[in-house]
Structures are given as C-alpha cells and as structure tokens.
Design a protein that fits this description.
243 residues; 9 helices; disordered C terminus; 0% strand; mainly alpha
Length: 243
C-alpha cells in the first residue's frame, strides 16, 4: 500500500493537473465546496418560502422540496446530463453537469435546514420585530436569520460531509473525481484493487469523520453558550451601609 501511495499520490490528489484537467481529491473538494456555497443562497430563499405566510409561495416550494428529496441524486445527475442539453441545446461538460445536480440537491436539503433553524428561533423574537413595524421579509432578514444561522452551523457541516460523498456519483458520467481516478490507477496496476480501494475508503473516512467531529464540537459549543450566559453569576452589588 505504501508503494502505491508513493507512486501515485500526486495523481490521486490532483489528477493530470497542470498538464491536463484538475482531478482527484482536489476536484472532489472543489466540487463539494462549490455545490454547498452555490446551493446555500438558493436554500435560504427556499427555506424562507417554506415558512412563508403566503400560501401561493409556500405550497409550490413545499411540493418542490418533497419531490426532489424523494428521488435519488443519480436521477438528478442523469437529468442534468441528458435532459437539459436536449431542452436548452447547450451541452455541458461533466464538471458543470455534476455541479448543477449538486446545487439543486443541496439547495433542497439546505432549505429544510434553514426551515428548522427559523422555526427554532423563539416566537417572541418575531412578535417583537413585528410590533416595531417590521414587515415579514425584513423580520426574517434582520432578526430571525442571524439567530437561525448560528444554530444551523453543525447541520451545514454535516451537509458538506454528505456532499463530499455524493461527488462520487460523478464517476457515472466520467468526471475525474477521486473515485474515478482510483479506477484509472487500478487499470494501470490491475493486480491490487483491494489496496487501492482501501486507500480510497480511508481517504473518505478521514475527511468525513474529521468534519463530523467538527460538527459535533460546534453543536456542543453552541449548546453550552446560552446556558453559560444564563447561569453566569452576576457581580454582587455593593450595599449601602446603614447610617
């Protein structure tokens, strides 16, 4: 195994770059990061629409969320790769196709995270903002979302973990992510697939386990902070001496 790592570690990390397209682990992390970052604004908008008081906005978004969450990501990848070019007439490469699928999929799951974060904010915060004359959208933007974002951080990290694993579906359309690169190395070595895929599994495990522990640490830290603030003893007030 050490011999394989010593021979192919650079190809495993970045593919053929700079003499060819970027690939390997670097492409996996880039794709997962872009999918989450580009899906987050859309997820926030969809999440706000999910709790909107306007039925004409809430009901279609709710239906969209349930439909996309009810189908596997592989189907979304196939639709982006085969269906979109036939409708738009524009042929996208493997990276753009996988990125579109991840953005759509992440946005829907992030919408549920945002919805849960918004509903976790005490109702009194919304009522206080509305009593000051703020509209619903402005209340969401200036009062509710800043508080909800803090509570959403562990879930966002967990979603990033899921996105990293989902990038492996790019193998189906020939994307040079880390699983595809491992298969290419296996075609060159041919006699050591168990060791190669053990390295791949260990790579995924280190990334995902490390991020999962980060999410757990954030969750515990955020859970402690309000209690610490609430139970912190107040300094004693000096008492006036009796005359």
């Amino acid at each position: 195994m050490l011999e394989l790592i010593d021979t192919y570690w650079l190809y495993f990390l970045i593919g053929q770059y700079p003499n060819g397209p970027l690939g390997g682990l670097a492409l996996t992390l880039l794709l997962a990061s872009l999918g989450l970052l580009l899906g987050l604004p859309l997820g926030i908008v969809l999440g706000m629409a999910r709790v909107s008081p306007y039925a004409w906005l809430r009901l279609p978004v709710t239906a969209l969320v349930f439909v996309v969450r009810g189908i596997p990501l592989l189907m979304v990848v196939f639709w982006a790769y085969f269906f979109l070019p036939s409708v738009t007439g524009v042929k996208t490469d493997q990276f753009a196709t996988m990125l579109i699928a991840l953005v759509v999929f992440d946005a829907v799951y992030l919408a549920e995270i945002v919805r849960a974060g918004i509903q976790g904010v005490p109702r009194g915060q919304v009522e206080a903002a509305r009593s000051l004359g703020l509209g619903w959208w402005r209340t969401m933007r200036t009062v509710v979302l800043p508080q909800a974002t803090r509570a959403m951080l562990p879930s966002l990290v967990n979603q990033f973990v899921s996105t990293i694993k989902e990038t492996s579906l790019g193998y189906i359309i020939g994307l040079n992510e880390v699983a595809f690169i491992t298969t290419q190395i296996n075609t060159q070595v041919f006699t050591r697939p168990a060791e190669l895929y053990a390295i791949l599994g260990l790579t995924y495990f280190i990334l995902c386990f490390g991020l999962s522990r980060l999410a757990y640490w954030l969750e515990r830290r955020l859970a402690r902070s309000p209690q610490a603030g609430a139970t912190r003893p107040r300094p004693a007030q000096p008492q006036a001496s009796a005359p």
